[in-house]
Design goal:
mainly alpha; 10 helices; about 230 residues; globular; single chain
Amino acid sequence: MGLREDATRGLTWSGVARWGNELLGLGVFVALSRQLGPEAFGLVALATVVIDFGNRFVDQGFSPAVVQRGELDREHLDTAFWTGIVTGAALTALCAGLADPIARGFGDAQLAPGLRWLSLGFLMRGLSSTQQALLIRSLRFKQLAMRTLVAELCAGIVAVALALTGCGVWSLVGQSLASGGFGAMTLWGVSGWRPGFGFRWSHFREFSLFGANIVGFKLLTLLSQRI
């Protein structure tokens, strides 16, 4: 199969993932809106501002570097993976520790507990970023699309089930964590690569030069969307 056919398939599956995710999200939102008040959605929206900011730093821009690099050895992948894990864990600890001051800054003390739990998403992102980059690199968009749809469907089921049992805002927190957890498990299930311990500082410096521009661009994009 040629590059054109691969690109066409990739575009098709990307569309399936995007529109399927939108439809699933709409269905789950309609179901949750009948069980939860606007305060719950507003609280999680505030927390999402913080989480989105931190997510821009999790893999340090190493995932795009993995996708674009011409020659890639196992040590490159190990370096990218462990960087994501360490950064994700550090961001989780930092966000959990600063949850109370952040909540006070937003003027809502109820934000702190949810923010602590949602910060686990940084670690989940670190677990899955290199796996996802490898699938993109090999144009395996079908697997990426199925990962997205499976994760969002399972997360929606978790959220609706929690809402029906009266969990309130924790339904939305559970949805976010379930999406990250099921997404990471699906990626590990379809990817044949497993990390080793071949971290190299030379590869880290090489990726950092490329990744710094990616992180900067993502931050500017986030600021333009959120301000």
